[in-house]
Amino acid sequence: MIIGVPKEIKNGENRVAIVPSGVNAFMQVGHRVLIEKGAGSGSGISDQEFLSSGAETVDTSREVYSRAEMILKVKEPQPPEYPLFQEGQILFTYLHLAPLPDLTDVLLKAKIVGIAYETIQLEDRSLPLLTPMSEIAGRMSVHIGASLLHNDRGGSGVLLGGVPGVEPGNVAILGGGTVGTNAAKMAVGTGASVSILDIDLNRLRYLDDIFGGRVHLLMSNYYNTEKSLREADLVVGAVLVMGATAPRLVTREMLSKMKQGAVIVDVAVDQGGCVETCSPTTHQNPTFVVEGVIHYCVANMPGAVARTSTFALTNATLPYALRIANLGYKEAMKRDSALMKGLNVHLGDLVCKPVADSQGLQWAAVEF
């Protein structure tokens, strides 16, 4: 199979979908890898490193798309890439289609085989290709939020950890999954007072075990959410419903009761956001203010730490990509139910029910 890796063009996206060891792994079993020149530069990987591992570099993304049977990417395709799709081409990347009806329509009309990293799900309900980026985004959320609280960034001037004689700041984390857990680790490390809200009592019990009483654990409901928001200096939106649009847990009315200069980092923005006032921003212009509250809503947060993110991501994606290349996507999905759940669009059919439900569309079951 010919594998194509274009350079990412989403604003501030410096990751790349393969590393030299991954190229070598494909080459060892007889596949070819085409990489657009400069694709790895944002992650500190030179064209020469790719060439030395056996890849062929090409000048344009158009050539990558025109020759490759499977496209490996990091982020969802951007409008300049839409005309480049080839019918029947496999697209393996983060898609996050639920809040993107226009992209869904393009992929359906192009009859793409779209496999989304974020909906590949193991029997224990874990999301192996989303987890490494969720770990990074969760950790970043507290670093970013703490910085935005500085007066020179428009924040309230609160130091999350406080100092002896001064109370620490309050961090409220909405969701106790991978993002929320990693955000809590960072926030606890600063010395902040940390609360996690989640709807799953068993998850709260697990978090109680791992944090040993250092985190306040609350059932997620309207009352507790509103109270936590009023007290919070930093709020981290860490809610995920696999494949679907994130639930809006924070209303504008709640926002109006928050402290002036407080900060919200909505990590859920790539699935539509869990804050009513959220809209996607970029690394170039990451924030805006509503009701005196700073919103950080960058949809590709890990792209800012591309070296770490690229290697963490490709550690997880490569085994699946190799399986698809070695067996063909149909046989690979027959053998791996987790990979089957990654299939979102298939030759003109929308086959992921959470995406269809989020967009009010019909979906089609597919079997191989």
What does this structure look like?
The protein is an alpha/beta fold and 368 residues long. The protein has 2 domains: 2-120 and 306-359, Rossmann fold (3-Layer(aba) Sandwich), CATH 3.40.50.720; 131-299, Rossmann fold (3-Layer(aba) Sandwich), CATH 3.40.50.720. 35% of the residues lie in helices and 16% in strands. It has helices at 20-28, 47-52, 61-67, 101-110, 131-148, 178-190, 201-211, 222-231, 252-255, 306-327, 329-335, 337-340, 353-359; strands at 2-5, 32-36, 56-58, 70-72, 90-93, 113-116, 170-174, 193-198, 216-219, 234-237, 263-266, 287-290, 293-296, 343-346, 349-350. The strands form 2 sheets. The protein has an 8-stranded mixed sheet, sandwiched between helices. β2, α2 and β3 form a beta-alpha-beta unit. α5 (131-148) runs parallel beside α6 and α10 (306-327) crosses α11 (329-335). The protein is globular, with a radius of gyration of 21 Å. 51% of the residues are buried. The model has no long low-confidence stretch (mean pLDDT 96).
Rounded radius of gyration (Å) = 21 Å
The number of E-state strands comes to 15
Task: List the helices and strands in order.
Answer: EHEHEHEEHEHEHEHEHEHEEEHHHEEH
- Tally the structural domains: 2
How are strands sequenced across the largest beta sheet?
3-2-1-4-5-6-14-15
CATH second-level architecture of the largest domain? 3-Layer(aba) Sandwich
CATH superfamily of the largest domain: NAD(P)-binding Rossmann-like Domain
